[in-house]
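quick one, 191 residues, struct below
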Amino acid sequence: MTGPVVGEDGVPRCPWAGGPGLMRDYHDVEWGRRVSGEAACLERLTLEAFQSGLSWATILRKREAFRAAFAGFDADTVAAYDDADRARLMADAGIVRNRLKIDAAIANARATVALREQEGLEALLLSFAPDEPPAPATTEEVATTSPGSVAMSKELKRRGFVFVGPTTMHALMEAIGIFDPHLVGCHRRGT
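---
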């Protein structure tokens, strides 16, 4: 069983963030912290979709290029992307060039704009917070889906979102702090 790992700095962390570098910085500064605002939520949703089948480190290394390519994840701007924008994105070596994922990002921006007439993207995502959040002590106890992520996936699909499967939505819930994803004993647990 794998619990928190103590790094060379003497600080216990989730095992995937044990060594210095990009992943540890993401773990310590951002992962599991609540984000606010439509653009922040759309960015995380988009990046989680692009991550599917790839390492999260790859996405983090390309994050600034994604922000530039997708106009800071401004939903109105991305929702208006056309075939010329798709061609530009497919030629952009700074991002993951996958036509289905690019199309999903545009479709999801359009669905985000449509949500404004209701509760909005942020409120919708937060509505799936579990009544009893998980408290895993080891990596073996960490789930990859949950009843909440299954329900979130179904609701987002119903509202026109794509590339939002239950596993991807569970990762999103962790990333944006819908619940605390850190292992018990990790220095970030409960912060």
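DSSP finds ten helices and two strands in the chain.
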